[in-house]
Amino acid sequence: MLRLLIFLGIGVLGCQAACNxxxxxxxxxxxxxxxxxxxxxxVPKGKxxxxxxxxxxxxxxxxxxxxxxxxSCTGSEDNVTEYCRSIxxxxxxxxxxxxxxxxxxxxxxxxxxxxxxxxxYSCPGSTYFDSxxxxxxxQTGTNSYLSLND
Length: 150
Prior knowledge:
By secondary structure, this protein is of the alpha+beta class. It folds into 2 domains: about 15-70, no CATH class; about 75-135, no CATH class. The protein has 3 helices and 10 strands; from the N terminus they run αβββββαβαββββ. The strands form 4 sheets. It has a 3-stranded antiparallel sheet with strand order 1-2-3, with no helix packed on it. A hairpin with a 5-residue loop joins β2 and β3 (about 45-50). The longest helix is centred in the first third of the chain and has 14 residues, at about 1-15. Residues about 1-15 and about 140-145 have low confidence and may be disordered.
């Protein structure tokens, strides 16, 4: 019985997608209820789509589900948007307080409908976010990191 519960727990957690990270189904959740399709290189791109009312983005297939336990991107996206609205600046910025992860992640601040929004992205493969060039690169310069506390 315990093995079954562990298997089910791993199965449910394994179905969740990270924010702005492309799944094997080439879908990326931008928020608990919004998603984008991904390029062949597994980079979120194009229009942001919304799940129907009462549905949550899973990043998998189907991309939207009524099962809230499968929802992706819960929590931190609100803080990222608050950060972008407070600085009111477009572009990419280092993100995170764990340097093992943060050198791979960055915040992208953008305007949609006249309002600032922010999303967290991860650099692909063995690239890292270089705060000097504000791009993902194979080597990093001197980085400074942003930590957003809940």
